[in-house]
Amino acid sequence: MRIANILVFVVALIALIQTLRLFARSRSSIRATAFWALVWVSIGVFGLFPRAIDMVMHSTMMQNRMFFVSLVAILILYAAFFRQDTLSADTRRRVSRLAQEVSLLRLELARARPEGGERDDKDNNAVSDQ
Amino acid sequence: MKVAITLCAYNEGENVRSVIERALPYGDVILVSDGSSDNTEAIARECGAEVVRHPFNLGQGVAVITGFKAALGRGDYDVIIEMDADGQHDPAEIPTFLDKMVETGADIVVGSRITGTNYDGAPWARRYFLPKLTHVLNKLTGYQMTDSMCGFRAFKAESVRRALPVLDRMLEPQYIASEMFIRFSRLGLTIQEVPIRMQDRSSGISSKGLFRYGWGVSRAILLTLLEKEA
Fold this sequence. Notes:
The complex is a heterodimer. Chain A has helices spanning 3-24, 30-48, 51-59, 65-112, 114-129. By secondary structure, chain A is mostly helical. In chain B, strands 3-2-1-4-6-5-7 form a 7-stranded mixed beta sheet, with helices on both faces. The model of chain B has no long low-confidence stretch (mean pLDDT 86).
């Protein structure tokens, strides 16, 4: 066993402990914890037993270890990106909903007071533009 | 039949006057200004449209839903027409939508640029990807559309009222069409199509990028399918 193998295992182990600590402090969701725990356990196992990579590689009909590792890394990055993007979309959606409610409320006010409605709306625009 | 025409506009000051003036004979116009910083809102008011203003740009999907809510807020419309404010849709075609709705009893009537005219002049990306995306949506929803992304549509107000709770839960409202049809099909709403004629934009440029749009639509479809049915 080479030093590099042990190093990869130690790094994966530290990352796994850190992931679990974040979960214990309620700073990450169970889904994120499960995802990252799986990633670090896989890296740790493959770091300690590189031949396991060959077994998985051959079962997926791949010839080149580098290609396999790169592919898995890309898939992990893609999953992380998708999750991050989904979280930010959720925040955007909440903000949008709030802004929409404000707009409709202003419309209702304008409808209720047709004479002054438009002037109020312009005043509000001036405030929001600042 | 009382008709509300909702237009979603983002900095369409150069096009909006002509669209509103041509649309007014067919119903009340409600313009949703999606954070416009030009004179879109002033022109719309001047032409007799009711204006709802988003404080900043929220995306077309949110603007469409705002338009629905603004129309339903009045409570007395039978039909809500949704169309673009950039001059690409001809308001003179609104009666075709209404006739189809009366004739078939459909909850929604969507315009089709593919069965309509002037489609050959469309950008290559639309000509290539639109039929494929529509095919996927048809498979998922059971509808028989030829153009799922056309923004010229007519909705029975009652159907919109029924669908509003699920539209409010839209996961990717920026890419409304694909997600909206999946949700409509879950509610059992019926759809018919009418051919429409696309016009060139009077001025300005479209703000939709192909790859960003493709990514957004794909994610919207995926997330909607993964979500538990209402």
